[in-house]
Specification:
TIM Barrel, 4-stranded antiparallel sheet, 2 domains, single chain, 9-stranded mixed sheet, alpha/beta
Amino acid sequence: MNYSLPESAYIHIPFCHRRCYYCDFPISVVGNQTDLTGRKTVEDYTSALCQEILHTNAIASVKLKTVFFGGGTPSLLPIGELAQILKTLNQQFGIEDQAEISMEIDPGTFSLEKLQAYRDLGLNRFSLGVQAFQDELLARCGRSHRVKDIEKAIALFEQVGIKNFSLDLISGLPDQNLNQWQQSLEAAIALNPQHLSCYDLVLEPVTAFGKQFEPGKKPLPDDETAAQMYRLAQSVLTQAGYDHYEISNYARPDYQCRHNRVYWKNQAYYGFGMGAASYTNGQRFSRPRTRATYYAWVKDYLQSGSVDCPQTSECDRFLETLMLGLRLTEGVKLSQLNVSSARIEQLLQTLEPYFHQQWVVGLDHQGKILSFLDQKNFDKIKAVNSIDAIALSDPNGFLFSNTILTALFRAFKDDLD
């Protein structure tokens, strides 16, 4: 089996002022201090992370095309630590001159000088964690910033000349209504980002929200209101000129997130740091989620030089490629699935009800949507191999993606067992 070569690296920076009430990410709370220079906790983490990078064998002589600093709040990382990590990545793998180097960044956690230093180090894409444009909603979900901090952050971007930035928004927050969501969308558009990510609130059991609330019950929006919020985002943002290229993501032309597309195309990537996941040589692996267990793992890794994890099966890869690729508006090319014609036939038969409901569409070799209005037409198109790719319709297919994916997993469950 030939696997794609990793050309991307995710770096997890776990430090945060506090834990937001919806957050289930592996983080380390550092309090309200913004300058963490010289803090031993940070220096120890950077040292362990760089050791992990240096002891990871580069797969072929392929330089990194994307690097993504996620968290946590990576903008709390001191410049010296960031420079050390980038130097180590370049030493071990090489970083292309035109690589996309992204950082998640929160309002109120950086200065003009810090932004300028980021640019000098080669960072060229920033994802600003806005979440909402109402102070009461920001307080409701435990965010440390307020709307005035968002405005200051954008003013700093303008001073430094940063054009390639994204804004993150969350819908379905407690006590959030449609008017507030529309206001947030319009406020975000007015700031002229090149990219927007709009996530629906997910209740994770161990989070504060997960312990307080039940999905679809007050003070959370009901299912119909949540669907209206999704449709509203799709309508407002596409009318404003953003391409809805992935279930939760919108971009101006040429500003899709190159790094995240690696995930959605089910391609290989390195992951480094506490809780980070990697996918190389057909193997998926996630690191421990606390600093202590991560440090112990790094120590063992340096001694053994390898990670013991199972190879993904053909059926796993097939379903993963579908699950991830169907998040994209462009869908999944059937040839990309690398399976037999019998399995493609089974796939299309499983999806047939959703073709008729127009939640799933077929695309021809030019990327044009094929029509499936009745059984006869469906069988005819299958017979002449007209379907080059399958995709979820926007917005209905995306809204019912969980239903469609559940049907696929049921259909191929026996192959997974």
